[in-house]
Amino acid sequence: MDLKQEIIRELMAHDILVEPAVVDYIIEKGGKSYLPKFIEKYKNIGIVSLSALGDEEEVEFSWVKEVHIWDFKVLVEEEGLTIRGGKADDFRNLFVDRYHRLARILRNRHELRGYVDISRMQRGEVKLIGMVDNVKFTSRGSLLFTLEDPTGRVDCYSPQQEFLLNDEVIGVIGTYNENTNRVYVREIIRPGIPLSKRNRRIKEDISAVIISDIHVGSKMFLEERWKKFLRWLRKEAKGVRYLLIAGDLVDGIGIYPNQEEELEILDIYEQYEKLAAYLEEVPEDIKIIMIPGNHDIVRNTEPQPSLPQDIRKMFKGNIEFLPNPAVFILHGYKFLMYHGASLNDLVELIPRMSYERIGEIMKHMLEMRHLSPVYGGKVSIAPLSRDFLTIDVAPDVFITGHVHAFTYENYKNVHIINASCWQAQTKYQKMMNFNPEPGKVAVLNMKEDRIRVLSF
Questions:
Q1: Last residue of a domain, one of 189, 217, 246
Q2: Cross-strand pairs, 130
Q3: Do 346 and 434 belong together in one domain?
Q4: How far apart are CA 164 and CA 133, in angstroms?
Q5: I want to staple 388 with a disulfide (CB 3.0 to 4.6 A). Which of 41, 47, 70, 303 is the partner?
């Protein structure tokens, strides 16, 4: 890990978010030796921006300020999403990074104060932090699993835990028996998210509209309902300054069996040209922020990079092209937007889940602080040096799409939204007994900190 990553990780451990220039400033002032002074002085600032480099007295730190009519800032840059390897060591580095990111959060849990490395365990009461492997259930429903940290592995037995997923990072409190070389678990602690007590309301009457899964190019694309939505944006929407689109912008080519029979537009570039023409109808004072999904012209392996430059050139207007997942701030609200392909894995892996309970699955994601914890499922995970699927920053708004349903819930003051679609049921969905819920739009009013739902 380089010096910049170490500084960023330490700042995030103290809930301090900074611009890249601030990290450079810290390095200039002494790097890690200067870091404690910086944290102590700015720990209650929240989001720190650097207006000028120079002596500390000349530097102005403040909350992100509104630029023109928008206040938009990306928290996780796309740099680092390029796949450069695929060997065992590359995947090991990915999981080591996941461990360290989530262990940092767990170490701040008061229940785990005094935890020890697995290699330093002694007989009796222990507190451990590790990655889960080899999950099994006994015939009586008890849970057996292996816990691993960088120093070693140990078998664990838990009589009570409802479920546990391979590759989760958790804390364990229990009793270590040297004779059996096993930890008898009394409590399993996930990283979790804190209950937000911050008053997020802003002074301006500004709203963000949240949608997903447009699927331009499909014969099942609901064009009339989509046009009705665009007319609402142009003529009736009051205070809307952002349109967020959570992936599957077009229907793509060859995504599911016999898809070509259901395509209105058979060329994917023409699909994007059609989408670009639609989005030109969005008023120019509305910033469009969009990420790709599994139907878009990017790799299927997650995390996914933003749309390529030859596609971006088709679009006019104020559009931000972000990767999947994306982490950004609007007017002090922290957004996590993820297309949601892992929902197909988690609906099967978490007991009693279904596509009617997507909100519950999203709550589990927040508690695990990971968007796709299990390696080897339906979602292919890229062997990057950083795990971009960890939820490093607890969001104020968590958005998914993908499953063509609609869900809104408030969980620990986090707005949880599984955004709706603009496509009627395909033959493939009918075969899978899946019924879409299209044309619903979530509108977040940031002055009132309130969600309302519209149907088109």
A1: 189
A2: 170
A3: yes
A4: 10
A5: 303
Which residue has 């899978």 as its token pair? 432
User: What three-state secondary structure class fits 272?
Assistant: helix
Give me the pLDDT at residue 44, please: 55
User: Looking at the structure, do residues 142 and 58 belong to the same domain, yes or no?
Assistant: no
Residue 338 falls inside a structural domain: yes
Q: How many domains does the chain have?
A: 3
Q: Which of 158, 189, 220 is the last residue of a domain?
A: 189
d(CA 289, CA 308) in angstroms, rounded, equals: 15
Give the residue from 188, 163, 162 showing the smallest Cα distance to 174. 188
**pLDDT beneath 70, residues of the chain:** 1, 15, 43-68, 197-198
Q: Please state, as a whole number, how many other Cβ atoms lie within 10 Å of the Cβ of residue 274.
A: 18
Q: What is the chain's alpha carbon radius of gyration, rounded to the nearest angstrom?
A: 23
CA dist., res. 124 & res. 338, Å (int): 42
Instruction: Enumerate helices (H) and strands (E) in the chain, giving the number of each.
Output: 10, 19
Same domain? 114 vs 221:
no
Distance of CA 14 to the CA centre of its chain: 20
Q: Taking each helix axis from N to C terminus, what angle separates 3-13 and 35-42, rounded to the nearest 10 degrees?
A: 30
Cα separation, 390 vs 388, whole angstroms: 6
Report the pLDDT value the prediction gives residue 15, as an integer from 0 to 100.
67
Q: Is 337 helix (H, G, I), strand (E, B) or coil?
A: strand
Return the CATH number at 128: 2.40.50.140
* Burial grade of 284 (CB within 10 A; 0-12, 13-18, 19 or more): exposed
Give the residue from 132, 74, 79, 11 showing the smallest Cα distance to 303.
79
pLDDT digits (tens, 9 = 90+) for 241-278: 999 999 999 999 999 888 999 999 999 999 999 999 99
Q: Could you tell me if residue 357 is inside a domain?
A: yes
Residue 11 belongs to domain spanning? 1-63
Residues 31 and 138 in one domain: no
CATH number at residue 218: 3.60.21.50
CB under 8 Å to 153, separation ≥6 — which residues? 118, 133, 146, 147
At 398, which amino acid appears? Answer: F
- Do the domain assignments include residue 104? no
- CA dist 402 and 6 (Å) reads 34
Asked if residue 255 is part of any domain, the answer here is yes
| DSSP 3-state of 183 | strand
How many of the other CB atoms lie within 10 Å of CB of 155?
A: 13
Contact 145, 134 (CB under 8 A): yes
Q: Verify that 260 and 220 share a domain, yes or no.
A: yes
Q: Note the pLDDT of residue 435.
A: 85
